[in-house]
Amino acid sequence: MGCKRNPERETGAGNRSGKPTRKGAGAVRLAELSERSGVSTPTIKYYLRERLLPPGRRITATQSEYGEEHLRRLRLVRALIQVGRIPVTTARDVLAAIEDDSLNHHHRLGTAVQALPHGPEADEADPATAAARRTATELLDLLDWRFSREVTDISRPFGMLVAAIAALDRLGYACDTAHLLPYARQAEQLAVVDLDLVEEFRTPEEQVEAAVALTVLYEPVLLSLRRLAEAEESNRRFGTGS
């Protein structure tokens, strides 16, 4: 989540408040919404039918106008479906969490991100799972990650961590807290960068949308940078100089 926010690209030159757009305040017809968003008109109509995009403001029996909030939502939906390869039903759940203003801001952010697809869950019948759960819990205690420690029973990321540790153990690779701690410390620093970027967005809804979109969009960035960095380190250690 390290790239700077670009308001012009996010919302165009119209209303940037995140509030519904009144007629004449940046409202556009469907064709222009398609042009500005890069999403085809049939796809936008599909998103409207699937309730991934809120309806526009009806101006005639057959036409509606759309505002900057629709443009922003389209970009989020594209991030989820086209980049994240998230099924439409899952994307709808994520968007519902984003819109749930009954939650406080912290829980709204967490609920929306939790709704994203996660890796396979740990096999509770596998003896390695219990040991992996102990290791993961000890790691959270070492880090003093109190909130994460409180929600281990319902946390999908914690379940992913347990499954990953169990897989390493089954294949004979060491994965105790000493091995995991350097990765966790790096994750702490990344979390600060991530939330600093999210806070650049003005409204709570924009911040939740950004947290979801950037989680999806930056995970491949992190993976690719890690592999590039490993190639550099390998060359330093083992390269022949050719």
TrEMBL record:
Residues 32-97 form the HTH merR-type domain. Keywords: DNA-binding. Residues 1-11 have a biased composition (Basic and acidic residues). The keyword rRNA-binding does not apply. GO terms for molecular function: DNA binding; DNA-binding transcription factor activity. Residues 1-26 are annotated as: Disordered. PROSITE patterns: HTH_MERR_2. SMART domains: HTH_MERR (SM00422). It holds the Pfam family MerR_1. The keyword Ribonucleoprotein does not apply. This is MerR family transcriptional regulator. PANTHER family: HTH-TYPE TRANSCRIPTIONAL REGULATOR ADHR (PTHR30204:SF98), REDOX-CYCLING DRUG-SENSING TRANSCRIPTIONAL ACTIVATOR SOXR (PTHR30204).
